[in-house]
Design a protein that fits this description.
Structural class: alpha/beta
Shape: elongated
Helix content: 10-25%
Distance between the termini: 28 Å
Order of helices and strands: EHEHEEEHEEHHEEEEEEEEH
Strand order of the largest sheet: 3-2-1-4-5-6-7
Radius of gyration: 23 Å
Strand content: 15-25%
Number of helices: 6
Length: about 325
C-alpha cells in the first residue's frame, strides 16, 4: 500500500465492526463514523460499532443523516467514504465530500440482487451460490461500477441468519481489500448491465405469509428465508425477526422449521392431513412437513406437540386465502 487513506466510515453490526478493525489494521485513518444505535433487545447479538469506535478514539454519531452533519468534513475532506452494513440512505452532500469517491459493500451479487433485501430473496429463489459485492456509490441505489465480488458458500439448509453471518465476515474482508487496492491507485470499475434486473426492496418477501398454493419445496425455502434466528447450545432459540406466518383456527402461528415431503392428497392446499408424530399440510404440490412452530406469544413448540395439545386434527385447514403476488420490477431507487 503506497499511502494511508483518510476514511469516513458508515457501518453497523458485524460488518461495520470488522471493517473498522480491518481498515485501521491496514494503516488507514478512520476520521469519523456514522452508525445506528443497537436496540436493547438485540445487544446480545449485534456488536456495537459505537463502542468499538469509542475504544479506538474515533468520533461517532448515531443520528440521522441531516445535510448539516456533513459540514465538519468540508474543510478537511476525507479521501474515501466506506459503507459496510449501514442502513440509512447516504446522499448528497455526503457523496460529494470524498476526494476519491464512495464505496459500499452489498450483501448479495450485483447486478442480479439489487435492493435492500437480497439475502431472503436469494434463499427463496433457490440460489446455489452467493457473493458479496463492493461497488462505487452513486446517486442511484446499487448502480455504481463493480470493484470486487467475493463468492460465499450457500447451503440448501441455510436460513437467513446463517447466510447473513457469512456475508458479514466476507463483506468486511472484501471492503478492506478493496480499499487497499484503491490506496495506491489500483482498482478497476466494471460497469453493471442493469437491463432486465429486478430490484428487491427491503420489505419482507410476500409480507411474510405463507401461500399454501405454492409447491412444498418453495414453501420450505420460504420458511428458511424468513428464519432470521439463532439458537444457543442446549438453550433457547432466539427469533431476531418474525418467522413465516400462517393462520390456523383464527390464530396466527409462526413456522420456522419445515421441509418438503409426503405425497399428494386429494385435499385442497392448506389442509392438514397428518398430526401424529409428524404434521403434514397439503400444498399446491406435495406436503409441507412442519417441524417447529411458535405461538402468538412467541413460545416455541415441536409442531406435533402443539397440534396435539390444541386438539388440531387431520381435515382442519390453514386459512388458504393469502396468495402471493409477483413482485414488481422496480426502477432504480436513490442512493443508500
Amino acid at each position: 500500500m503506497s499511502r494511508s487513506l483518510r476514511i469516513l466510515l458508515f457501518g453497523y453490526d458485524r460488518a461495520g465492526v470488522a471493517a473498522l478493525a480491518g481498515l485501521r489494521h491496514s494503516g488507514h485513518q478512520v476520521c469519523a463514523c456514522f452508525t445506528h444505535a443497537t436496540p436493547q433487545a438485540a445487544q446480545e447479538w449485534i456488536p456495537s460499532l459505537s463502542d468499538a469506535c469509542k475504544r479506538a478514539g474515533v468520533p461517532t454519531s448515531e443520528s440521522a443523516l441531516e445535510p448539516s452533519a456533513s459540514q465538519p468534513f468540508r474543510d478537511e475532506r476525507p479521501d474515501l467514504i466506506v459503507s459496510a452494513g449501514y442502513r440509512r440512505r447516504i446522499t448528497l452532500p455526503f457523496l460529494a465530500l470524498p476526494r476519491w469517491g464512495a464505496i459500499n459493500v452489498h450483501m448479495g451479487p450485483l447486478p442480479r440482487y439489487r435492493g435492500g433485501a437480497p439475502i431472503p430473496w436469494g434463499i427463496l429463489n433457490g440460489e446455489s451460490s452467493w457473493a458479496v459485492t463492493v461497488h462505487a456509490m452513486t446517486h442511484n441505489y446499487n448502480e455504481g461500477g463493480l470493484l470486487r465480488q467475493q463468492p460465499i458458500s450457500l447451503r440448501d439448509t441455510d436460513n437467513a441468519y446463517d447466510l447473513f453471518d457469512r456475508c458479514s465476515t466476507a463483506a468486511a474482508q472484501a471492503v478492506v481489500e478493496t480499499v487497499n487496492e484503491i490506496a495506491p491507485g489500483s482498482g478497476d470499475l466494471v460497469a453493471q448491465d442493469l437491463r432486465d434486473v429486478r430490484f428487491y426492496d427491503a420489505a419482507v418477501p410476500f409480507g411474510g405469509r405463507i401461500d399454501w398454493n405454492q409447491p412444498a419445496t418453495c414453501l420450505a425455502a420460504f420458511v428458511r428465508a424468513l428464519d432470521f434466528g439463532r439458537g444457543e447450545i442446549d438453550g433457547p432459540y432466539h427469533h431476531l425477526t418474525p418467522p413465516a406466518a400462517a393462520t390456523l383456527c383464527e390464530t396466527e402461528i409462526g413456522i420456522w422449521r419445515a421441509r418438503a415431503g409426503g405425497t399428494m392428497s386429494p385435499y385442497p392446499p392448506g389442509t392438514i392431513t397428518r398430526t401424529d408424530d409428524e404434521v403434514w399440510v397439503q400444498t399446491g404440490r406435495g406436503h409441507l412437513v412442519l417441524d417447529r412452530i411458535c405461538d402468538p406469544q412467541g413460545h416455541d413448540f415441536a409442531a406435533a406437540d402443539y397440534f396435539a395439545a390444541n386438539g388440531i386434527e387431520p381435515g382442519q385447514s390453514f386459512n388458504p386465502r393469502h396468495a402471493w403476488r409477483a413482485p414488481d420490477s422496480l426502477k432504480l431507487g436513490h442512493a443508500a
